Amino acid sequence: MNETPQPAKLRLGVNIDHIATIRNARGGTHPDPVAGAYEAIRAGADGITAHLREDRRHITDDDMERLQQLCSAENIPLNFEMAAVRDMVDIAKRIKPHAVCLVPERREERTTEGGLDVAGLHNSIAPLIRELGENGARVSLFIEADERQIRAAASSGAPVIEIHTGAYAHALDDENHEKASKIFKAMQEGAELGESLGLEVHAGHGITFENVGAIASIPELVELNIGHYLIGEAVFMGLDAAITEMRRCMDEARQKLSLAS
Ligand code: PXP
Question: Whole-model pTM?
Answer without folding.
Answer: 0.95
